[in-house]
Amino acid sequence: MGGLGRDAWAWLGVVAVMLLAQLAGASHVVYENHLDLEAAAAAVPPSIVDPQLRPGYHFQPPKNWINDPNAPLYYKGWYHFFYQYNPRGAVWGNIVWAHSVSRDLINWVALEPAIEPSIPSDQYGCWSGSATMLPDGTPAIMYTGIDRPGVSYQVQNVAYPRNRSDPLLREWVKPGYNPIIVPEGGINATQFRDPTTAWRAGGRWRLLVGSVAAAGGGGARGAAFVYRSRDFLRWARVRRPLHSAPTGMWECPDFYPVEAAGRREGLDTSVPGRPRVKYVLKNSLDLRRYDYYTVGTYDRRAERYVPDDPAGDECRLRYDYGNFYASKTFYDPARRRRVLWGWANESDTTADDVAKGWAGIQAIPRTVWLDPSGKQLLQWPVEEVDALRGKSVTLKGRVLKPGQHLEVTGLQTAQADVEVSFEVPTVAGAEPLDPALAHDAERLCGARGADVVGGVGPFGLWVLASADRRERTAVFFRVFRAAAGGKPVVLMCSDPTKSSLNPNLYKPTFAGFVDTDISNGRISLRSLIDRSVVESFGAGGETCILSRVYPSLAIGKNARLYAFNNGKADVKVSRLKAWEMRKPLMNGA
Ligand SMILES: *[C@@H]1O[C@H](CO)[C@@H](O)[C@H](O)[C@H]1NC(C)=O
Ligand SMILES: *[C@@H]1O[C@H](CO)[C@@H](O)[C@H](O)[C@H]1NC(C)=O
Ligand SMILES: *[C@H]1O[C@@H](CO)[C@H](O)[C@@H](O)[C@@H]1NC(C)=O
């Protein structure tokens, strides 16, 4: 909490008052979908509503539904974060832009909602959007408004701060000339949303809007349309989209430059054209509900983006192979990095959410940069999260024989950060890779889960485990034999099938391949464990998986942490360090 200024503390007081007012009004909450609250509460095991299952250091408001991150930005010493929020309940609806501010991306103070329905072009909804920093330092927010009842007819609006001297940007004004962009020229108005941060090149602004291109034969093609403007007022569409692919609707596009391979520094979205700069295009696939990206080049004369890997459009790369959607990056000028925000939904039922009174969190913000291979991004939790680390335990040089596990004792691990380095003496015993599953990590993990004995691996962590290990969430690696001339294939997997005795949960195995060379024997894993969140980073951020799990036994003091080896070869835990994590200021929650 050290970094908070006096302003923040003053605001905290205001927030506390707001909170109390909200609580006092809670009995008047009406849920739109007429769920029977008492029946819902009776039907779920008590663990679901146990406050000990509420995350401690992941971003969340005190209550209610949240979804997409919106318009993250840095202004006059403050990080601003907006998000889709239902002020009236724990299910989607009544969406406004909630607003929080922070000095460090970890301690958050809630302000009044920034953008709410108030003008004809947003009166039926204020949906997602992004911020752009204008050359004079003013932030502008572009967002999707719903302008008629019944059908979600989508237009794009702009809003500006009322008082630029206010570092907290508390009030936003919507100019009378809204909307600034409407669907025309054959665009389907119900699939036209989520404007990106605008970038400027050659005297012109550009931004993207997610949509579908006219389907020519096959299924609908996801598309990112480019709009250009000289004055930030009048916007005209470029006929051909920046890019499109046969995936269905693209929501929440994000498009940004990254430094040449391996350099961790971020670039401003309006970076002047430089030969070695690469671009990342990310889309949230409405049909699959995951975020996919490609790395490529941007030709700003032709206004086209081309992925380096022609197969990239087949949805090869994800930021995160777990629950992570509608993400958005921003350039942080204070630390010259690009930071990624993403929404993680719940894995319980809607009735559970209503009983709990809240649904949805944001992943820990991650720094993103291009991997030295140039083929994918690396991601790592922003360094500020390390300030929450408290009591720690370190283990070194412990060999796990086949079938062995090792408990990490001496600290509570329901809310913890673990970094572990594994060493495999040889990969000679790795199991063969079924060619039918060689491109489908998720199915591979489903078939070869944490309890299926392998050659090299599965090895990794059991987190949020009960003392008898009936409940445990496995985060692990599994090594497959190399194809002729290739390197061994490493799978990273999150297996929650035993995460809870509660049967009514969504427990998918999540998995991704890890682009690393394990023949040198080493691989690392970091897991941010937060009561009902397991957010893991394999091989220094090559592959990331966020899972939401709801233990019924492994709650609070009863949550344990183990390293395990279920392979036929020895695995060494060369070093494991675990920290208890403190709770930051979290919007008064
Ligand atoms: C604008 O914000 C500054 C800084 O918070 C404040 O001192 C000033 O009174 C505000 N002006 C108006 C017109 O609200
Ligand atoms: C527009 O999109 C909606 C889905 O949001 C779809 O139901 C409808 O058929 C589409 N209209 C046309 C003309 O393609
Ligand atoms: C998160 O919840 C699960 C389980 O209900 C759904 O299957 C996912 O589609 C959902 N994800 C998103 C992004 O909505």
General description of the model:
It is a single chain. With 589 residues, the chain is mostly beta strands. The protein folds into two domains: 6-30 and 61-345, Glycosyl hydrolase domain, family 43 (Tachylectin-2, Chain A, 5 Propeller); 390-581, Jelly Rolls. 7% of the residues lie in helices and 42% in strands. It is globular and about 70 Å long. The two termini are 15 Å apart. Bound molecules: 2-acetamido-2-deoxy-beta-D-glucopyranose (3 copies). Residues 1-26 form the signal peptide. GO terms for molecular function: hydrolase activity, hydrolyzing O-glycosyl compounds. Belongs to the glycosyl hydrolase 32 family.
Defining traits:
single chain, 589 residues, mainly beta, Tachylectin-2, Chain A, Jelly Rolls, 2 domains, six-stranded antiparallel beta sheet, 4 helices, 37 strands, globular, disordered N terminus, binds 2-acetamido-2-deoxy-beta-D-glucopyranose, glycoprotein, glycosidase, hydrolase, Fructan_Metab_Enzymes
Low-confidence stretches: 1-38, 40-44
CATH topology name of the largest domain, in short, is: Tachylectin-2, Chain A
CATH architecture of the largest domain: 5 Propeller
How many structural domains are formed by the residues? Answer: 2
